Amino acid sequence: MDQWAGKVALVTGASSGIGAETAKLLAKGGMKVIAVARRLENLKELAASIKSEFNVQIYPIKCDVQQEEEILKVFKWAEEELGGVDVLINNAGVVVNKPIIEGATEDFRKIIDVNVIAMAICSRELVQSVKKRNARGYIFNINSIAGHYADLITMPISVYAASKYAVTGMTASLRNEIINAKLDIKITSISPGMVQTEMIEKAFESLGDVQTLLEGVPILKDKDIADLVIYGLSTPRNAQICEVIITPHEAIAPKNPRPFSNQ
């Protein structure tokens, strides 16, 4: 991690959950962190918390990743104020608890826009920033086990699984492009099982009391995923972690039935 101290990291979807926890650990590790999301007040609270706990500053910026011009403004600000972005954590994501066969087209578009297109735009801009400076970089795509084993998820999640399969494919394509361009940029896809985050709680509140539903369900914490980002950044320059699939360790979890799968 020391090799990235003083470098600039951009975290999308940083207002809560995995994004917020990752921003904290990156800042603690000495990186200059740009935290973006739609909810600026949450970002400001995160910045204050990090300042209080670690005595370091992060940069909260409001950004709706569905709007390309807002993404471009963030990268432009980063270039003008901090010199550019070195590490990108593509964390922003959305899920909708509705079946495809009864779903709204606007939900389909929102999921693809946030989970796939915004990730492609941010990745493109990171690569261009690194290439312009002849620097080194790292991209982390926060994927999902849904992007590998959609058949395990029997509850309705609209086109979420489809979007995550797209992330799996896009990560592979980006890696090949980066290799062909001879750029010093690593890219890692992190695919968690269920993580207890605000996104999950909001998406599934229509099923009833989410906290009650989650009791006894093997589940990951947001810090578990953030720790993997730090681990990736700690690897030597000659080593690249291509894909990580992380699931709860069921041997130490209660054995209640799972409400979200028949597996």
UniProtKB/TrEMBL annotation:
InterPro entries: NAD(P)-bd_dom_sf (IPR036291), SDR_fam (IPR002347)
Keyword match Oxidoreductase: yes
Pfam families xref list: adh_short
Keyword match Transmembrane: no
Listed GO MF terms: oxidoreductase activity, acting on the CH-OH group of donors, NAD or NADP as acceptor
Keyword terms: Oxidoreductase
Domain of life from the UniProt record: Eukaryota
Family assignment from sequence similarity: Belongs to the short-chain dehydrogenases/reductases (SDR) family.
Name assigned to this protein: Dehydrogenase/reductase SDR family member 11
Species: Camponotus floridanus (Florida carpenter ant)
